[in-house]
Amino acid sequence: MLPPSSLVQPRTWRRKDEKTPDDSDFFISTDPKLISIKAVNDACSMDFLYWAKPFPDEILKQIIAGSLCFGVYKHSPQIPDNDTQAGENNKSVNDSEMDDQNAPKDPRSVEQVGFARLITDTVTFAYLTDVYILPAYQSYGLGSWLVECIAETLSASNMPYMRRVMLVAEGGKKEGFYANMLGVQAIGKEERPEMGKSFVILGRRGGVPSKMRAAA
């Protein structure tokens, strides 16, 4: 049985904004080769991801291999990891090998600043979880862009046989955010007294309407 990451052709999204030129340094990709196990585990150890905890590396690799993952990346200088690369200390992402969609093939040339994953069979069901943008990058609008890319992936034009899209989010502002972005609605509640929080189970039947992508 092939993992979801091998069933969907990897995609890369790039964004440019004249008002914030630095946005051109960011991209989102579903290429599993770019996912940093260390970056995801480091984020899961931070307080802002209060619902998550780090996993042993091999377990996290298994989790990621069984999911369709979206990484949010910022171009950064390559850092060599052995003496054979000593002459490339100053090599930037612009010098590294790129694929046809202008995403770097070498994970060392980028910094992972966000993540999301879909637990999915890539045909009929998708559960969105582990969505985050590192606090230092939350002022760039990357969270909305990330969910917009997920919405495009889950649209009827890309997954025409989708039966159900689901996720769990805090009530209030976050519930409204996902409702606008993905067209989901509350179908249940989950109380987490150990966290002092209430969560809403959100879902929709069928794929995400294309019009929802403009709601960010």
Automatic annotation (TrEMBL):
UniProt biased composition (Polar residues): 80-95
Positions of the UniProt region annotated as Disordered: 1-24, 80-108
N-acetyltransferase domain mapped to chain residues: 112-157
Gene3D superfamilies: 3.40.630.30
Pfam families: Acetyltransf_1
SUPFAM superfamilies, A to Z: Acyl-CoA N-acyltransferases (Nat) (SSF55729)
Protein name: N-acetyltransferase domain-containing protein
Species this protein is from: Paecilomyces lecythidis
